[in-house]
Amino acid sequence: MSCRVSPWPTGCPRVPQGVAMSCRMFPWLLLALSVCAHPGRGMSLAVSPVVPPRHMDSVLDILDALESPARGGSPGTAAALGRGLGVCSTPGCRAVLGEPLGNPGRPPALTPGQWQLLTELLHHDPATPELGAVLAPDGSTVALGPLLAGIEAGLRSGGFGRPLPTLNPPADPLLAVTIAEALGTAFLLAQGGDNNATALGPGGCWDDVENPQNYTLRGPPSPVPDPVAIGAMDGVVLGAQLARGPLPVAELLRSYYGTGNGSEAERPPSSYRRRVFRALAGQGRLEKEVEAVLELLRTLSPTSELLRGMGTQEVAAVARRAAQEFSERYVECPAIVPRCLWGARPYRGSPALLQPPLGSVFLHHTLEPSQPCRTFSACAHAMRNMQRFHQDTRGWDDIGYSFAVGSDGYLYEGRGWHWVGAHTKGYNTQGFGVGIIGNFTGTLPDPDTLALVRDELLPCAVRSGHIRQDFTLRGHRQLVHTDCPGNALFQEIQSWPSFQGTPVALGLR
């Protein structure tokens, strides 16, 4: 049983007064509330061979069918259907978007397989949050629930459909239905549990990125695992866009995520989600909205029991912690594509542990491939080729870099934070090796890629304790006889904070 935020419609059992609010202590409570939110969910759907893969492209096909004017569809059809299937089942979300109109049947526009996929994705079970997620073309895993809730809030805010209610206390409806209620409730539950309780993460991996069917979390689920956080951020970004004017949801998602499983030549807008979300709901605003939603939940059943006995200052402290930890994890730090998602081979032999915090970061360019990769598909392919070269030609245990940096907006996990790499001979135990994919002898990476390393990765590594606050940044050529990281890139990094200009190895230039 996960510590997922449970759907709590009016009429479900109330939390007994005076009990500690830890979902680990009361799995029966979460089970009862989730069953109440989705009556009759005890029977599983029959497995069908025609169910499409859990990919955003499959969702786009469904939305195309639902929104077709020739079949009576409109931009709000998918959002309304999603709410009927269980997207909006928490007290705060229902207070904003209203009660669902009933259990919908399969629209004629959808095949039985498409309907089965949609109902599995949107009938959320708090014990298995990973079932509500799909793989997007940019390589991110997105929970559809908060995404569709944000889309409906944006459409209605923009004048399409029924007006949104005025909340008391005042709260932003878009943030309330996407992230604020989930964060507030998650941190209330974590606060009432044991010291090891967590409210955020983990991420996970798909069985096959070309034909994704099963998504497995890489650790015990929290109330807000990574796909829920990503779906919520996308719901905010796209909901804010729809508030400026409605358009077909399928068209909106297709332009945002891209199509063809990342086969396009340019970086998709979805890879900028963290930057755009920060502009729309930075840590200060997010804290304010979480606090407002928690005060709203005082007036709703059964969440009022979660807040019984808590004063205004205690609620503010929960909101502050929630906004800070969410921002540090999902907004200020860059996204890292795990090894299992880019298709890494197993490590050969027994890896050696690093002893953090380390004192150095060594910057490289990969040289091959010579061109920057701008999509998940291209970057994952480059990672597999580099690992194959390092293992089969160089005879190393694994890909040498700690991390590689794509021009698609993502870091790619190599040896990672914990294992000694093979990137800077003689210094592998002293620092992390970061390789930017491409040849940067005569040209620089694009400004966004440089900023990803300079302004996001390095400060995040300090905050998280992987490197020391007084760490030094060096180019590969300062430690080994090589032209790496290329003349253009080496000249650029000399202006970065923490750059150490003096070669430390005797005899080097």
Shape: globular
State the helicity in percent bands. Answer: 25-40%
Beta content comes to: 5-15%
The gyration radius over C-alpha positions equals: 24 Å
Order of helices and strands: HHHHHEEHHEEHHHHHEHEHEEEHEH
Cα distance spanning the termini: 59 Å
Strand order of the largest sheet: 5-8-7-9-6-10
Give an overview in words.
The strands form 3 sheets. Strands 5-8-7-9-6-10 form a 6-stranded mixed beta sheet, with helices on both faces. It has a two-stranded antiparallel sheet with strand order 1-2. Strand 3 and strand 4 form a beta hairpin. The longest helix is centred in the middle third of the chain and has 20 residues, at 173-192. It has helices at 27-37, 56-67, 77-85, 91-97, 112-122, 144-157, 173-192, 226-243, 249-257, 273-280, 283-297, 312-331, 339-342, 376-393, 447-463, 487-493; strands at residues 133-135, 141-143, 204-206, 215-217, 336-337, 358-365, 403-405, 411-413, 431-436, 467-475. The model is unreliable at 1-49 and 505-509 (pLDDT under 50). The termini are far apart. The chain has 16 helices and 10 strands. Helix 4 packs antiparallel against helix 7 (173-192) and helix 8 packs across helix 10 (273-280). By secondary structure, the chain is α/β, with parallel strands linked by helices.
Structure summarized in a few sentences:
With 509 residues, this protein is of the alpha/beta class.
